[in-house]
Amino acid sequence: MERLLARYAAVRKHTLALAEPLSDEDCGAQSMPDASPIKWHLAHTTWFFETFILERMERDFAPFHPAFRILFNSYYNGIGEKHPRAQRGLLTRPAMAQVRAYRADVDARIARLIASAPSAELDMLLTLGMQHEQQHQELMLTDVKHLLAQSLLRPAYMEIPLPAAAPVAPLAWIAFDGGLTEIGHNGDGFSFDNELPRHKQYVAPFALASRLVTNGEYLDFINAGGYFNAALWLAEGWDWARTQNMKAPIYWFQDETGAWQEFTLHGPQPLDVNRPVTHISLFEADAYAHWAGARLPTEFEWEYAGTLAALETGSLHPSGAGAGAGLQQMFGHCWQWTSSSYAAYPGFAAAEGALGEYNGKFMLNQYVLRGSSSATPEGHARASYRNFFPAGARWQFAGIRLARR
């Protein structure tokens, strides 16, 4: 269990490191209902270990604070009451210092539990908890980016230079024969329940774009009037774009000279035409694909190809593809929208109890994204991973990979 404890400590340490560049004021604010304050992320990931492990397994269990069971419950109806999601930014108390103390207390108790009562169940729950925390590490970066972008100061999350990307090679098409294949996690290592069960799926012959769509290519779509051509858009997407006066990706803006800029975790940057376009909704991705004479891949096509791609780990912003050959940017740059609705695989069964609420109950009115992003923690990505968001979501690092027959 020493290796498991070391892994646990590393994951927990990384979460705190992500909050380190931020002030306490930064950590307490909530920019929209879909995002959460950094302080809440720090507490909720700790709540997960306290609620699902210590409460169940610790002898003479006593909560760190009784109110935290409600305050930091996200969506687990089986646990009980929840503080309203849209009001997480109103939690001026507990202070950040108390949240850090909460983390330290739970970490010490988890360490004692690992040493005194190791078991297969504990191993399973700790692994799930760490994977859950890695999901929140990514959310911390996407949520704080949205928060900082609301300020006219446009402050950087981290003052690290963002070098220009190398020129990209022309987009190429990589052909795949398709056929009857197996989809879903193969049982090697961890997976979430929505990646199971592994099952057979027929995939017709198809081709994938060699790389992600770039900012420069998306700018061509904008300049061609793509946001104002109803023929390119899904009906709901057209209504969404017109109602909200959409003209560009969420973090693009024009300076006083009319030049395009992009807000990043490094602060405002001149728009780099060689980097992949990111923070795109499904509506925008689908409209661009129609404009380009292509389509979005299905999640099964993406996984069929993704099992052959190298895993990459990102930084704080998607990198350019450069002039390489073959499939590039499948992992570690942008999550990639697919045309597949988020639904259960044949034979899917949610686990019993509150943990069974992890994924299954969200299988409605959302679409699947595949790959991983520049904000995804190292070791968290795999070809079978199924991310999912509503069609209008734009605050995630989501980009566009084209497909065609």
Structural account:
This protein is an alpha+beta fold and 405 residues long. The chain folds into two domains: 2-149; 173-404, Alpha-Beta Complex (paralog of FGE (formylglycine-generating enzyme)), CATH 3.90.1580. The chain has helices at residues 2-19, 24-28, 38-57, 68-71, 96-116, 120-149, 215-223, 235-243, 282-291, 299-306, and strands spanning 173-176, 179-183, 199-203, 206-209, 252-254, 260-264, 267-270, 335-341, 367-371, 387-389, 398-399, 403-404. The chain has a four-stranded mixed sheet with strand order 10-9-8-11. Strands 1-4-12 form a three-stranded antiparallel sheet, with helices on one face. Strands 5-6-7 form a three-stranded antiparallel sheet, with no helix packed on it. A hairpin with a 5-residue loop joins β5 and β6 (260-264). It is globular. The mean pLDDT is 96. It comes from Duganella margarita. Pathway: Amino-acid biosynthesis; ergothioneine biosynthesis. One of its GO terms (biological process) is ergothioneine biosynthetic process. Residues 8-128 form the DinB-like domain.
